[in-house]
Amino acid sequence: MAFYEFQGYVYLVVMLVMLAVKAYAFISSLLFSAEAYTATGKLTKPAWSIILGLGLLAQVLLLNASPINLIHLAFTIAALVYLADVRPALAEVTGRR
After folding, report:
1. Are 52 and 43 a contacting pair, CB within 8 Å?
2. What's the pTM value of the predicted model, to 2 decimals?
3. Which of 12, 16, 22, 11 has the alpha carbon at shortest distance from 75?
4. Which of 3, 7, 59, 90 has the fewest CB atoms within 10 Å around its CB?
5. Which long-range CB contacts under 8 A does 25-28 form with residues at least 24 apart?
6. CA–CA dist 29, 91 (Å, integer)
7. Tens of pLDDT along 34-87?
8. Domain ranges of the chain
9. Can you give the chain as a three-state secondary structure string?
């Protein structure tokens, strides 16, 4: 029984980390101007905001689902792409860090 209890805690931690990453990416996407997205040649601000917002909404609504769920993984990858590629380009264009 202790193994399943440990597994439950690991899933909880993974889900909370995924939720935090998606929330941070979504809030960050809202803070940059639409012109900055255009200047970087990335997807538009509405596109990133919708993608990241849907990911955050799915995370909240499907909280009881496994973190290995395809929906969670797809939106987590989208949030990580935003944080690793788009956000640094936006910060460079706007001069923010």
Report:
1. no
2. 0.88
3. 22
4. 3
5. 25/52, 25/55, 25/79, 25/80, 25/82, 25/83, 25/87, 26/52, 26/53, 26/55, 26/56, 26/79, 28/82, 28/83, 28/87
6. 11
7. 999 999 998 999 999 999 999 999 998 887 777 678 888 999 999 999 999 999
8. 15-94
9. CHHHHHHHHHHHHHHHHHHHHHHHHHHHHHHCCHHHHHHHCCCCHHHHHHHHHHHHHHHHHCCCCCCCCHHHHHHHHHHHHHHHHHHHHHHHHHCCC
User: Measured between alpha carbons, how far is residue 9 from residues 12, 31, 33, 88, 91 in Å?
Assistant: 5, 33, 39, 33, 36
